[in-house]
């Protein structure tokens, strides 16, 4: 049997493992699920006859190399910074590699050697990055095949809570990596291009510059700018495009409310707060406010944020129990961002019966035969439950499908790459539709950012 080694059995691996196990009989596959926790690997394999759970410490070189040498192909579902040693072992033992992570400089440096060995190191084949690349390139290639020239490309994606489980004032719950949510927008100004002009939004105002999106059947959303929208300009062949913008989707009102934390300084991850372990939630808030002999923490908060007590922004803060003097942080040597994450996790953790939702929205503006046109492409995916979430489905299924295509010789281009070639995106997008990941494309009038000209 052909052996697929999956390293990492975390939340993102559930749909991936289920898919490959469902194909194991017809495709002659044996799935080895390796994780530091044998119990977790056993849970994910569910005693399937074509699966083997394996306890694996990736920092044990001999143990790691032994597992990789026995595999026909390797999938790494580890955090991005841990892929590189796996990749080097794959080069040594001549194994293809698939990951859902961004291509790091260290991974890209292996490109030439991978090509020499005729190995495929497929990266960025999850949701975002992944499905965003594939669904975008499909439409861009179709426009180009008709002779059209791209004028505008905007791409938005967000992990949200499903409408039937949306029951807090923020219209948001953590569906993935809470730390990434707290640190969103940091690390430099957001950078993009509109109508041929470079634009920059500093972190302090990124959550007050939003775009609005309408998705039929799901209502209105907003999106704030990603840090670097221009990263894929050359990769997508859009060097001459007038507008290129990528953003993160939230429900309307989230960004304005989140900006309160930014303005207070609660999202800062650059310093440790003194005696954070014994600090109450109320003391945490008060740490960012000026001293006043008589004003309460609540009054000082409203004054500094310029919000009234009947403002919905105030209700959103109260809902988080931020001013509770009895709740303790219980985190030693914590940064403000870490403490904020802890506080938000009290309110924003999915309940056992909650479902998550992925929303993706692309806009393609182009000129064809002298006429300006636009295509809007929208996708909504709802999770099944807490194990087979929409996030796990949209991250794991493309990884699994790409792995099988490589194993069966349907994807043949060697080297370190992302899924922008037709041999990758055409079969995967088609198969994803069978699992409810469907893009609805609609012709729209093109306005760009100068509607008065049309």
Automatic annotation (TrEMBL):
Upper lineage: Bacteria, Pseudomonadati, Bacteroidota, Flavobacteriia, Flavobacteriales
Keyword Protein biosynthesis: no
Origin species: Flavobacterium azizsancarii
Keyword list, A-Z: Oxidoreductase
Residue span, Saccharopine dehydrogenase-like C-terminal domain: 126-437
Superkingdom in the source lineage: Bacteria
Domain annotation Saccharopine dehydrogenase NADP binding: ranges: 4-120
Oxidoreductase among keywords: yes
InterPro entries hit by this protein: AASS, NAD(P)-bd_dom_sf, Sacchrp_dh-like_C, Sacchrp_dh_NADP-bd
Name this polypeptide is given: Saccharopine dehydrogenase NADP-binding domain-containing protein
């Amino acid at each position: 049997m052909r052996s697929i080694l999956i390293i990492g059995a975390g939340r993102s691996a559930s749909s991936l493992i289920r898919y490959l196990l469902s194909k194991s009989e017809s495709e002659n596959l044996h799935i080895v699920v390796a994780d530091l926790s044998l119990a977790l690997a056993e849970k994910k394999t569910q005693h399937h006859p074509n699966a083997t759970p394996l306890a694996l410490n990736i920092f044990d070189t001999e143990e790691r190399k032994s597992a990789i040498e026995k595999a026909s192909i390797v999938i790494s579902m580890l955090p991005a910074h841990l892929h590189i040693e796996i990749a080097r072992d794959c080069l040594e033992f001549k194994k293809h590699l698939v990951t859902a992570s961004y291509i790091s400089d260290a991974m890209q440096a292996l490109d030439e050697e991978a090509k020499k060995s005729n190995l495929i190191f497929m990266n960025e084949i999850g949701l975002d990055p992944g499905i965003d690349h594939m669904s975008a390139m499909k439409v861009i290639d179709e426009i180009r095949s008709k002779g059209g020239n791209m004028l505008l490309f905007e791409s938005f994606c967000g992990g949200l809570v499903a409408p039937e489980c949306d029951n807090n004032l923020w219209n948001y719950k953590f569906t993935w990596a809470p730390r990434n949510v707290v640190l969103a927008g940091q690390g430099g100004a957001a950078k993009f291009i509109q109508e041929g002009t470079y634009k920059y939004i500093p972190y302090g105002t990124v959550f007050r510059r939003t775009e609005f999106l309408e998705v039929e059947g799901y209502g209105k959303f907003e999106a704030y700018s990603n840090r670097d929208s221009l990263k894929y300009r050359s990769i997508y062949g859009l060097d001459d495009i007038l507008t290129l913008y990528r953003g993160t989707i939230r429900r309307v009102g989230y960004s304005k409310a989140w900006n309160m934390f930014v303005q207070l300084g609660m999202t800062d991850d650059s310093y440790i707060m003194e005696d954070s372990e014994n600090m109450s939630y109320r003391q945490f808030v008060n740490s960012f406010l000026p001293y006043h002999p008589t004003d309460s923490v609540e009054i000082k908060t409203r004054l500094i944020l310029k919000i009234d007590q009947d403002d919905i922004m105030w209700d959103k803060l109260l809902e988080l129990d931020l001013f509770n003097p009895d709740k303790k942080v219980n985190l030693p040597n914590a940064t403000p961002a870490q403490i904020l994450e802890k506080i938000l996790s009290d309110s924003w953790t999915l309940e056992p019966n909650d479902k998550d939702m992925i929303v993706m929205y692309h806009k393609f503006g182009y000129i064809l035969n002298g006429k300006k046109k636009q295509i809007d492409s929208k996708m909504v995916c709802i999770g099944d439950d807490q194990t087979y979430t929409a996030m796990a489905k949209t991250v794991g299924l493309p990884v699994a499908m790409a792995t099988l295509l490589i194993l069966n010789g349907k994807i043949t281009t060697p080297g370190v790459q992302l899924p922008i070639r037709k041999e990758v995106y055409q079969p995967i997008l088609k198969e994803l539709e069978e699992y409810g990941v469907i893009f609805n494309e609609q012709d729209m009038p093109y306005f760009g950012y100068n509607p008065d000209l049309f």
